[in-house]
Amino acid sequence: MSRILPAGGVEFEFTVPVVVIGGGAAGMVAALAAHERGAGVLVLERDALPQGSTALSAGLIPAPGTRWQRAAGIEDSPQRFAADVIAKAKGEPDPAAVARVAQAVGPALEWLADRYGLPFSVVDNFSYPGHSARRMHGLPSRSGAELIDRLRGAVEAAGIDVLCEAHVTALYADGPLVRGVEITRPDGSLERVGCGALVLACNGYGGNRALVRHHVPELAEALYFGHPGNQGDALLWGEALGAATRHLSGHQGHGSVAHPAGILVTWATITEGGVQVNAEGRRFSNEAQGYSEQAAVVLRQPDGIAWTVFDERIAGIARQFEDFRQAEAMGAVLTADSPVELAGLMKIDPGILSATLAEVDRLKAAGGTDGFGRDFAGSALLAPPYRAVRVTGALFHTQGGLVVDDAARVLDARGAPLPNLYAAGGAACGVSGAKASGYLSGNGLLTAVALGRIAGTAAAGVMKEERSQ
Ligand SMILES: Cc1cc2nc3c(=O)[nH]c(=O)nc-3n(C[C@H](O)[C@H](O)[C@H](O)COP(=O)(O)OP(=O)(O)OC[C@H]3O[C@@H](n4cnc5c(N)ncnc54)[C@H](O)[C@@H]3O)c2cc1C
Asked: Does the keyword Ribonucleoprotein apply (predicted)?
């Protein structure tokens, strides 16, 4: 469906200076930025209501040096954040690309707060793996649904047109110059809209099983937990137009999705001192490395299943997340006064689980590192009542994509920008490198918000330059 058609002779019903494909965080932020620069903007979204993976996320965005951090006494800087991103991905991402988003994201959040009333606050009561400062920012419910609802509200209040049930099925181009898009409506009818500049904000290819099998074979059969409409259209169009792509195997997995409830169980359950055991009641990994790489690790356990085990203190922290509250409401979070009772509820060997948890207690008390390399120093002992959730590993979204420059322009294989094509969010190559382990918490919305603003601003700028010539 993601075709490139010749533009010659095509009559567009109308032409809009900036067309944005995709109504997730990247698309909505790009639309706001382009509109502010005075451009006419049209957002095209295949669903009846714009939500995307953004709505499925926890809506947490890492940003350094913000006023919310300063108010909480948290020291941070774009350089420090960039160093964390690069360290997590073991030096794989382009330092310039990392610096670009690390510098842009803080001002972008403050802009969204000041101009559009998004009430961000910083998560200051727990740390995410790999972040050397507490820099995750979220809205009051800590949910992506609230993030996309508020962004959509801002777009609507600004008078920006959002066309829903508008599935872009082809681009019209003259060589690398995009002239317009073909929209397929639910009844199969086609519409053709011309564009001055095109922003690809239609995320990656997580929903396209064939592309996942090709690029991320270890998660080929994993549950896909992202938005099904993300079929890799940006990647396929970009490739057909001669765009450079990078790190296509990069992705965010997650090793703690409640199963079968299908609800994300926050990784705070681990970072605060919880552990994962398999169906035998034994630990099998250094869980603290990160939730992304843990997806494939959990899937290698019997039946692709693990149990995340923690306690009431940690549940109290996790409860700030809507997802966790839902998991509890659905009865997915077991509770028991002792490891033996917990094992009974989990239907696993009580002796093995008790021994596993006793060993974890011993390591914590001694401040030791286990055989998997997890350092338990400073970690509080688990105390009754204990909690456990049955989880599996899932693919959340892909991180590789189209290579962009400082203005979010899509680059060709020689590093030259395509004339009027921009990419943001999951459509663009992220900053996680080529492996799941390279994903630092928040890298997804980082490039959605930071690159979205850059892309929208630059796409509107192209139109201004053209008008003044
Ligand atoms: C469960 C879960 C939790 C997550 N938690 C976090 C988190 O806390 N922090 C974080 O940083 N990241 C998180 N992520 C990742 C984050 O959700 C994504 O990185 C981010 O939402 C990407 O934004 P986007 O705008 O690029 O894509 P999306 O929000 O997916 O939006 C893309 C939109 O494009 C539309 N579209 C696709 N193709 C077409 C087409 N051809 N025509 C028209 N429309 C089209 C789709 O319908 C969709 O609405 C999480 C992801 C998941 C799945």
From this structure: no
State whether 263 and 386 are in the same domain.
yes
- Examine the domain organization and report whether 230 and 362 are in the same domain: no
**Helix or strand run (H / E) with residue 232:** none
- The residue among 395, 420, 455 that closes a domain is 395
pTM: 0.91
The domain that contains 375 carries what CATH number? Answer: 3.90.700.10
Q: Is the omega angle on the peptide bond into residue 260 within 30 degrees of 0, that is, cis?
A: yes
44 lines ligand 1 (CB under 6 A): yes
Q: Indicate if 137 and 57 belong to the same structural domain.
A: yes
Q: How far is CA 284 from CA 5, 221, 435, in A?
A: 51, 21, 20
| Structural domain containing residue 220 | 3-247+399-468
Among candidate residues 191, 188, 266, 254, the one with its CA nearest the CA of residue 397: 254
What does the pLDDT look like over 164-222, one tens digit per residue? 999 999 999 999 999 999 999 999 999 999 999 999 999 999 999 999 999 999 999 89
The answer on pLDDT for 465 being more than 60 is no
Query: Exposure string (b/e) for 370-394, b if CB count within 10 Å is 16 or more?
Result: beeebebeebeebeebbbbbbbbbb
User: How far is it, in rounded angstroms, from Cα 200 to Cα 50?
Assistant: 15
Do 27 and 141 belong together in one domain?
yes
Ligand 1 centroid vs 426 CA: distance in angstroms?
7
Protein residue with its CA nearest to atom 32 in ligand 1: 202
Whether the bond into 417 is cis, omega within 30 of 0: no
Our count of domains for the chain comes to 2
Q: Where are the beta strands (DSSP E) in 225-304?
A: 245-246, 251-258, 263-264, 275-277
CB 200 within 8 A of CB 234: yes
- Tell how strand 251-258 and strand 245-246 pair up: unpaired
Q: What does the angle CA 96 – CA 102 – CA 104 come to, to the nearest 5 degrees?
A: 100
**Do 236 and 369 reside in the same domain of the chain?**
no
Ligand 1 atom nearest residue 396's Cα = 53
Pair (56, 190) in one structural domain: yes
